[in-house]
From TrEMBL:
TM spans (from-to): 17-36, 57-84, 115-134, 146-167, 173-193, 257-277
Annotated GO MF terms: ABC-type transporter activity
Keywords: Membrane, Transmembrane, Transmembrane helix
GO cellular component, one term: plasma membrane
Domain of life: Bacteria
Organism, scientific name: Paenibacillus flagellatus
Protein name as annotated: ABC transporter permease
């Protein structure tokens, strides 16, 4: 397994998109830190109350993690959208599959290799954003809350990875990337619409539609639960539905839903293993 993790890292570093992703990530973190510092300086000049500074810190954290999840999602898409069909087209997959290894083990090894580096990248993003707001804006945070938020923030791109790899068995590289990006964007859009619905009241049809989309691709729901946990859980529930526009959270995914996401990922991996085992290379 260590061999596959190392091989995935070498393959990632060969891709120009990996270098571009790293550069854009550094640019984002630098600009975010600059913006947080400037806003924190304005708060000091205005002599805002501790409650106002805490609320502003929460808003900055929500905005920072919102764009961080974009980076994590597109890192998944660019690195995994051609993991099967892309290697099949260039002949690399046939050479690897010729070894006396069950195909399902090869598929899981590829998923694990990708998952390790995606988890590392997502964790660095999460810690960088949260630590920037904590150190520059003085947002109080608890280690237990951060660990729960970090685990869920990392779990979100791994769900997208499971879906993208399954699509890569059936679809060509570009088609799979477009399909996965559209599904991810649609789930994100539904989450934003649900946040806007706070102002006009929730509609039963809208609730059912958002729930259906969340079951189809639960990435946005997991992301929102990670925010809820990172910023205090139940202690922050009142502020979570405050005037944050599309970033408001009228509902928080339950623990049962998180268990569903684990079954969701397991089913996708099972389907991927079966499809890869039957695929004509």
């Amino acid at each position: 397994m260590t061999m596959y993790i190392s091989a995935v890292f070498k393959e990632l570093t060969r891709k120009r998109v990996f270098l571009v992703t790293i550069i854009l990530t550094f640019v984002f973190l630098i600009l975010f830190a600059f913006g947080v510092r400037e806003l924190a300086g304005m708060e000091g000049q205005n002599q805002d109350s501790p409650a106002e500074r805490m609320m502003n810190g929460m808003v900055l954290t929500v905005l920072g993690l919102f764009f961080a999840q974009f980076l994590a999602a597109f890192f998944v898409l660019f690195s995994a959208m051609g993991i099967v069909t892309g290697e099949q087209e260039n002949g690399l997959l046939l050479a690897v599959a010729a070894r006396p290894i069950p195909r399902w083990r090869l598929y899981l090894a590829k998923w694990t290799g990708q998952a390790v580096w995606i988890a590392v990248y997502s964790a660095v993003l999460f810690v960088s954003v949260v630590w920037t707001v904590h150190s520059l804006a003085g947002l109080p945070l608890l280690a237990e809350d951060l660990l729960r938020g970090l685990a869920l923030f990392v779990w979100m791109p791994l769900l997208l990875l499971s879906l993208t790899m399954l699509g890569s068995v059936y679809l060509p590289m570009l088609g799979n990337g477009i399909c996965a990006a559209l599904l991810y964007g649609f789930a994100l859009f539904c989450g934003l619409v649900e946040g806007v619905s706070v102002y006009e009241g929730t509609h039963p049809a809208l609730e059912k539609f958002v729930l259906l989309v969340g079951l189809l691709l639960p990435t946005d729901s997991v992301y929102r639960r990670s925010l809820y946990e990172a910023l205090g859980g139940a202690d922050w529930a009142g502020l979570a539905v405050a005037d944050m526009g599309p970033f408001s959270m009228p509902s928080v995914p339950s623990n049962v839903f998180l268990l569903y996401t684990m079954g969701y990922a397991a089913v996708l991996l099972l389907l991927g293993c079966r499809a890869f085992g039957r695929k004509d290379l």
